[in-house]
Amino acid sequence: MTGEAREKALLAACMAATFKPDYMTNDKLEAATKGHGSLVIPVYCAANSLAEDVFCAIGAPEMSLMSSRMTMVDASAASLPLDMVIEKAVRQAMLAGAAPENAALIVAALAYFTGSCARAGVPLGNRKLGAIARMHAGAGRTSAIALTTGKFTHKIPAFPAYLAIYTQLREKKLTRVDGSVLPPFIAGGAIYGHSVLGEDINIPELARNTARVGTEAMMEAMIGAGITPYPLWPAFIGAAVALEMVHPDAALGEEFGPFRTVDSAYLAGKGAVEAAKLPEKIHVRGTHEEYDTARVIGDFGLILKDIGGPSVIASMVLDEIFAGFEESPMIGAGFSGGPVNPPLGHVCGDVMPALRLLMQNGGDSHAAAAVIEEYKMNSFIDPEMALCSLNTIARKAEAVSRGMVSHACILAGEGVRDRAIYRRAVKTWEMMEAGSTLEEAARALDDERRAKVEERGSMILSGFTGHTVQFRFTEIAPQGRRTDKFTKKYWGFDAKVSYDISVDGKDYHIDNLSAKAVPAFAVDGTGRDNPDMGTALFAGAVLTQELMYIGHTIINVTVPAAVAAVRGMDGAAAAKEAERGAYLTRAIPGGADRAAEVSSVAKRIHTRLIEPAGA
Prior knowledge:
By secondary structure, this protein is mainly α. The protein is 57% helix and 5% strand.
């Protein structure tokens, strides 16, 4: 075959693989547009709306979200410019499928990171960002008791925080001030609230101690449920429950800082941060902007106490928004900040950095995209796949609502995605030209990915743990413990994974990680006396899940099938053979169906490409 004919065949295969976002993945993208179990697309849509108002290309100058009128705290007005911005963003999130209370949380969180204050309004109006978002969404009012952590296998509602706080409240352990000794007309007025007793003693003590106790209780409850006490949501809930009780707008005494620079929300954040052992400062990916963690946690406590009753998927998506911080693995934020690339329902950790990068670069999507691409290339085990999945979910979001944020995320992944697809098409073509079967070509692509995960995973885990880690899989197979036909075909539902690992030069073999090694360690105590064993299991869990979640990007199935189809193979047969060969990408079902569609499109494109000019 001539070079021109070869390139037309490769072009057809590559164009078919990217014909629509759904062809890139086994994850259920269409359901995500309706909010069924995932809020990732509503996050992009709300962010696009906010970005439009940040720069406000059309409209009055006061409508810019970056203006002082938008971010002011002391505003005595029936309607603020912020109201219109929030209402529009909420509408976009709900259009993408978010329920009212979930849309409110998404918009309040993103508006906060685009410059809005957690409070906006004088005491008479008592306006707060969480309540503004909730009311514009039309969500019902409830208390912080409706909050729950994100799902880390299980989720923990806020009840433990309430139980611990109110138990200690009755025992008079949270403040030195005893309400029973106060003369009448002290509590509730300026003699208390704007004085030494309130601003210097009681409010700082009560805010800090209440948030601390609530946070500790949430973490203890997570441990009791048999899960790791990831600290971010316990801190959120501890601060929210504290600020539900403590005067949330109090300006504290001069020992804490100049007048109106330190408030009760900050002290609640401080108590939560101390209990959760969060870092003092956190930094936005890409911009490296520094945030005071106590300020952020306190402000989100203020938001969350007013937001209504967001569901578990809203808690999870707030985790993912916080994955936009460099310290996300330390604070227990979402998965989309890396190093593992998660399913597409989680991939919105670049939204908040994209907003901040757009603000830093005057709305230049190309400049923002360049930085996003750079930090993802450095922070993921398989950055190529990470950028492919980002491109896919941002493209799907643009099908619902276009804007600067989704555009920047598409640009960030576009070149890497196209290179990844073209490289796979070329390799498949060359292997089949040399006599290999389609199944062998697909298997070779998965073998390449496995080796890359082992190599880069060893390097990243060494940096993260502080140990020298060398890792190599010895077995990746289905059915660690099951015997049914379904899990025999799709290994992601019951993995049988074994590996060799070296930790600081000490060699270990882990046999059947999920079905044997982890239960033995957690339940029977096997290996717990060895300080390296936790690292060995952690490393295996990270790298196994990096391979297991590959349903987000299935180009090791679709691209080889498309190449074989334009070479003359039946499309359905090519799809089945490619899926059979891609033993890692075949983690969950759907690859063959997608590959058959891609093959059909590739043939249609190829038919037109090879027609004579002018036909």
